[in-house]
Amino acid sequence: MITEQGLIAGRDPNGFRPLAMARLGGAVCFGSESCAFDLLAASFERELEPGEVVVAREGELRSHRVARAAAPRRCVFEHVYFARPDSVVFGDSVAQVRGRLGAQLAREAPAAADVVVPVPDSGLYAALGYSRESGLPFELGMTRNHYVGRTFIEPKQSIRNFGVKVKLNPVPSIIRGRRVVLIDDSIVRGTTSRKIVRMVREAGAAEVHLRISSPPTAWPCFYGIDTPRRSELIAATHTLAEIRAFVEADSVAYLSLEGLLGCVSGERASYCTACWSGAYPVSIAGEDRRQAELFPVGEEEIRP
Ligand code: SF4
Prior knowledge:
31% of the residues lie in helices and 21% in strands.
């Protein structure tokens, strides 16, 4: 918050979301991601502690603990998808974590294929890791239009559909006649993945093997991310075989939760994994609980 009295920055008591502090001459800067400081040429100082509030006023900095220390539950999805690769989040380089996720995915879910292709941009570093570990060549078989936003968080299906078309385009000269391992960070509803798999096939791929650098997303987030309700998440309502059939890939495999947690440096229990495990570290109530139920009373299953 910026007030007439000063600048106030606070982090939630469990530290779900990152918040860091940097210095620029005599000024102090706050940002969720350290890459913001690079743009300003500010020097990163530290992450705020969970439950800490820092007040910057008239050249002075004061730190306050406004919430009782809760067990840290850092959102590990930041490393999978949300954060930028040029950031350091929860003490780990996002790019390095994503590379490790890809390498672990290659160990857990190898594919008989000719080329590793990322779904840009969030699948890029995981695909590099997969390629290094598997020995399969990495190629940019899809291009991304940088003038459109993230389809995951667009509010309406019609906007998401349009978004995918405008956003991604395959490179047929790289894909044609080859068995492609397509690397993406997650499958939410499945509709975007199906469009991408179709695109790659239409560009001439002989086979498409979809590999996901996180476990099946089967639970909504109530800690700051606008995810769909549970009945819209394909992994909550479909088996792996059904997901494969829905997205029309030759094979689909996800990274295990154990494998994911082995790629970050903190204590395993210090991360939130609720969107994969359903283990919500802070209890949810009312409308949130209703959304977390698979088929709330009076509501029909919504097929992706
Ligand atoms: S539920 Fe998922 S997205 Fe939300 S804070 Fe936990 S790990 Fe992150």
